[in-house]
Amino acid sequence: MSDFRISRRGVLAGAAMLLASTAMPSFVFAQEPKKGGRLVVAADSEPRNLNPAIVASNGVFFVSSKVVEPLAEASFEGEDGLSPRLATSWEGSEDGKSVTFKLREGVTWHDGKPFTSADVAFSALQVWKPLQNLGRVVFKDLEAVETPDEHTAVFRFAKPTPFQLIKNALPALTAVLPKHVYDGSDIAANPANNAPVGTGPFTFAEHKAGEYYRLARNEAYWGENQPLLDEIIYRVLPDRAAAAGALEAEEVDLAAFSAVPLADLDRISKVPGIEVVTKGYEALTYQLIVEINHRRKELADLKVRQAIAHAIDKEFVVKTIFLGHAETATGPVPKNDKQFYTADVPGYAFDVAKANALLDEAGYPKGADGNRFALKLLPAPYFNETKQFGAYLRQALAEVGITAELVNNDSAAHQKAVYTDHAFDLAVAPPVFRGDPAISTTILVQSGAPDGVPFSNQGGYKNADIDALIAKAAETLDAEARTKLYYEFQQKVAEDLPLINVADWGFITVARDTVKNVSNNPRWAVSNWADTWVEK
Amino acid sequence: MSRLFLRSPEAVAGTIILALLVAMALAAPWLFPRDPLAIVGPAMLPPFQDWTLPLGTDRLGRDVLSGLFHGARTSLAVGLAAAATSIIVGVLVGTIAGFAGGWVDEVLMRITDAFQTVPGFLLALAFVSVAGPSLGVVVVAIALGAWTQPARITRAEVLSIRERDYVAGARVIGMHPAEIAFREVLPNALPPVLALSSVIVAAAVLTEAALSFLGLGDPNRVTWGGMIAEGRAVLRSAPFLSIVPGIALVLTVLGVYLLGEGAVEASAVKRGNA
Which residues, in sequence order, are CB contacts of A405 under 8 Å at separation 6+? Predict the structure, then answer.
């Protein structure tokens, strides 16, 4: 078997060398960015609504972030981890009730109209606050946006809102829409949601359902000498195994968001001309969590939850399911977040004996068949890894005498079962940590979320201490004091286990080595790719 | 009959294969008393490396050989149960339609038509997606698409048998029509339907595997289709994870077909001799 593989790899390498040698004369070993060329990218989903101001999710950003720009983008080097886009500077007031943005001058929309502060005011008040999944939380106290001139926007908040939160929210939540396209229409049903108009480096050219999206160069882009590419094609390849094959066959140049299965990375990294890049997802950390339905009498008992936490071997999950491309989690903030993470939380080491003892103490002794009680376990179907972790968790629970019955659903049925009908005992979910706990993390444990809101606390958990802490942090203006409150938040969550954080992971990009400037910011896959170029 | 049966090489091969499979299915809980989904070793161990895990392990470290044995139980159980269900339903519907005739026949046959126009797999897929995957649901889902063929064949047989003299005789002596239908007509209409059973079992095993492959099998049980699906993600780096259960599936279907073929041939020879 292994002999065969080596010889086959040899043949492949040889063939690639031959191909390369014929193409040699056109190879120019210059690293000067080159204008022109087409980038073909593998896309594994085909969102219908491409409006990033309404649907702030990575599937939408992947395509639309090149067309519609936010006020600022995440950056490795920039101050506050940001680099300016449509805003050139931002400043918060002392009382936390206003933030002033200076906007970029000389920017035009793809249809030729000028970009002004009116567009920002419109987007903030008419779209981000009332319609956007994340903006509803962050901009809930936004009262008015004043536009003293065409290039200044002043956000006024009814209640003090931490400037730190607003800054952290800029990359994902502030895609600016053209007022003249949306004003006076039903925003949620506007045709521009399927063919977005923005200020970005690429214009939306066409979408052939089931086949591809095409973006074309915006000749009037504000960035100097940008963009470098002529066009970007997103080839729809829903089958994950197909992405690896397409890369090897040179049909696509780049596959982001781990479109190439983790198990295939080792093999594909040895294919000449293909590079595996793990950078570029630092601000897009996904968290593997176990959601708990606290309405179940057994699970309402802290000892049972602690037992489950002790029954999970996080190292095994990282090593076997994520093949090392993840980090074990200690609490609701991932380790890679330098701003908010604290390691000073109660830990739950993998300890089957202790888990068994805790369950005995809780008053659920093993029956004659070795089982204590049965639970319904619903793994989210979105990722291979969430499904695999579901299979693992079933076995881990069996070791401590809890029978878990797996229930597999498609995405729609899963969301309904967990977030609307609450027809689960345990569920596996992959929420995203978006650089600030207040954006999409505290909502996972805060009480009072209406039924049906996905990725929110639908387990019936209610803890007045934690709720108070979240409310206090939401109006604490001093960044340091606010961070301290989130340390406390992490401790409380790890202590009371409203949910169990198992691991945090970023994604992997696999690209042909002719694609340059890959992964040069912490949200690269969902940034604008204005400086990306291809070597010919 | 049995002597004739064993003279055909297909039948012998089919019998041996199926006997082995049944032995595997029956022996599974004795040879592998642990849950076949339990994690027992390092992940993705290739076959023939560790003799306690002869066929290696899957992506989570579950024993492939144990999965193969326990999977045989699921495959055979679902295959047989689905075939039995569809044959019983089909035979009942066919007998009633053929014997009663008139509007009853019309109604039952139009219903059969309706089921036959929808591809069986699509029907199964739709049913499982709505009812949720579990073993019982999968059996019903497969039977849903498979009962029409036995129904049609039974009806055709019954139509010819009910005109025979002994049926008329039974009527004359005052037997209840239902008694005539099920005691006199049905037993004589059965042989061609039973010849069909091997095809139905084989199709049921394949349909079950296809459903599991698409993630619509019962996730709490090992199935060969599920094992193939699980191995597909690592097809390039660990092909054995898909190949091993694939071979088992091929052998099962082959065995069932060969046995059916042998049975048909033996009965044809017997009829020819008589």
Answer: A374, A375, A376, A377, B220
Residue B170, in any domain of the structure:
yes
Q: A99: part of which helix (H) or strand (E)?
A: strand A98-103
Interchain pair A267, B236: CB under 8 A: yes
Instruction: Report yes or no on B267 lying in a domain.
Output: yes
In the predicted structure, residue A403 carries a pLDDT above the cut 90: yes
Residue B69 in 3-state DSSP?
helix
Q: Report the alpha-carbon distance of residue A57 to residue A439 in Å, rounded.
A: 12
Q: CA-based angle A169:A175:A179, to the nearest 5? A: 135
Residues of B whose CB is below 8 A from A244? 236
pTM given for the model: 0.84
| B59 closest CB neighbour out of A244, A381, A388 | A388
- In angstroms, the CA A208 to CA A217 distance is 18
Q: Is the complex ipTM higher than 0.90?
A: no
Domains contained in chain B, number: 1
Name the closest residue on chain A to residue B44, using Cα atoms: A320
CATH code of B7's domain = 1.10.3720.10
Find which of B60, B135, B240 to mutate to test the A interface (most A CBs within 10 Å of its CB): B60
Task: Encode pLDDT of A68-114 as tens digits.
Answer: 999 999 999 888 889 999 999 999 999 999 999 999 999 999 999 99
Range of the domain at B6: 2-31+59-273
Phi, psi for A85 (deg, rounded to 5): -120, -100
Q: Which residue has the tokens 């345990």?
A: A426
Q: Is residue B82 part of a domain?
A: yes
Question: Do the Cβ atoms of B35 and A261 come within 8 Å?
Answer: no
Site from A265, A394, A426 to mutate, B interface, most B CB atoms within 10 angstroms: A394
Reported as a single tens digit per residue, the pLDDT across A326-379 is: 999 999 999 988 889 999 999 999 999 999 999 999 999 999 888 999 999 999
Minimum-distance CB partner of B37 among A240, A266, A395: A395
Q: Classify burial at B46, counting beta carbons within 10 Å of its beta carbon; exposed 0-12, middle 13-18, buried 19 or more.
A: middle
Q: Tell me, yes or no, whether B45 lies in a domain.
A: no
Of B35, B59, B215, the CB nearest to A263: B59
CA dihedral A514, A520, A522, A526 (to 10 degrees): -50
Count residue pairs from A and B with Cβ separation < 8 A.
57
